[in-house]
């Protein structure tokens, strides 16, 4: 696995952590969680910036987006019990298909 892909995956993990922390912060009522969300998202974008040094921005950002959305959906289900309906899962599936098609086209 390339360094760019490792940076990208690290960025995705940090983005999911930021999203979960933001939910825990309850609109920044719990400041520590809010601060963690801000730090994690800044670190996520720093890693994304490193990733795009070795891959096209379009592909990196598209992969980052779909993995972050899917990961956040799964994490909020596991941590908070939030569930998506079948239409939402269909939408995520279409996003994944779109990323695969974009990757094949590049």
Automatic annotation (TrEMBL):
Subcellular location: Cell inner membrane; Cell membrane
A GO CC term assigned to this protein in UniProt: plasma membrane
Subunit structure: Forms a complex with MdtJ.
Recorded superkingdom: Bacteria
InterPro entries in UniProt: EmrE-like (IPR037185), Small_drug/metabolite_transptr (IPR000390), Small_multidrug_res (IPR045324)
Species of origin: Marinobacterium halophilum
Membrane-spanning intervals of the chain: 6-22, 34-52, 58-80, 87-105
Organism lineage: Bacteria, Pseudomonadati, Pseudomonadota, Gammaproteobacteria, Oceanospirillales
Membrane-topology descriptor: Multi-pass membrane protein
UniProt name for this protein: Spermidine export protein MdtI
Pfam families noted in UniProt: Multi_Drug_Res
Membership in a protein family: Belongs to the drug/metabolite transporter (DMT) superfamily. Small multidrug resistance (SMR) (TC 2.A.7.1) family.
An MF annotation (GO) of this entry: antiporter activity
Record's keyword terms, sorted: Cell inner membrane, Cell membrane, Membrane, Transmembrane, Transmembrane helix
Keyword Transmembrane: yes
A GO BP entry: glycine betaine transport
């Amino acid at each position: 696995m390339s360094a760019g892909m490792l940076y990208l995956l690290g960025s995705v993990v940090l983005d999911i952590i930021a999203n979960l922390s933001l939910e825990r912060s309850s609109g920044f009522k719990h400041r520590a969680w809010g601060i963690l969300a801000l730090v994690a998202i800044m670190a996520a974008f720093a890693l994304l910036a490193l990733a795009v040094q070795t891959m096209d921005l379009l592909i990196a950002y598209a992969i980052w987006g779909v993995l972050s959305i899917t990961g956040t959906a799964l994490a909020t289900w596991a941590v908070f019990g939030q569930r998506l309906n079948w239409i939402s899962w269909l939408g995520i599936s279409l996003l994944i298909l779109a990323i695969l098609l974009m990757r094949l086209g590049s």
